[in-house]
Amino acid sequence: MEVINTVGRRKTAIARVYVQPGNGKITVNKRELENYFSVKTLQNIVLKPLELTNNSDKLDIAANLDGGGIKGQAEALRLAISRALIELEPEHRPVLKSNGFLRRDPRMVERKKPGQKKARKRFQFSKR
Question: Which residue of 6, 47, 70, 107 has the fewest C-beta atoms within 10 A of its own C-beta?
Fold first, then answer.
């Protein structure tokens, strides 16, 4: 079986994932998952698709993350892993889809407009 590579995105974070058969080793930017995502909540976000499909100890995953914040990177990685699992075994699709792991979250930061303080906040109005 060859290496499967997929891409996941969230906000400005991009995750490129390479999945191959192995014993469950996950490396993110050449570091262990626990070292890169030190918060347990973020580790759970990343590992959830593997737990739902019972592939936690069957696949080795190497990921390259770029851009965004740490939460956006974790969610981008989750999307990329979910897409790779579907390429491996299409019967996992209903489980992953029902948990919302196949939807790319479209929410982005709204741009700042000229003549305003932020995207929607105005400068304070002074009558006199």
Answer: 107
Fold of 4-98: Ribosomal Protein S5; domain 2 (3.30.230)
Cα–Cα distance measured from residue 10 to residue 45, given in angstroms and rounded to the nearest whole number: 13
Q: Which has the closest alpha carbon to 33: 94, 103, 24, 92?
A: 24
Q: Tell me 122's DSSP state.
A: P
pLDDT above 70: residue 115? yes
For residue 29, the one-letter residue type is N
Question: For residue 67, which of 14, 19, 105 has the smallest C-alpha distance?
Answer: 14
Instruction: Give the span between the Cα atoms of 102 and 53, in whole angstroms.
Output: 14
Domains in the chain: boundaries: 4-98
pLDDT digits (tens, 9 = 90+) for 86-98: 999 999 999 999 9
Q: What is the pTM of this model?
A: 0.91
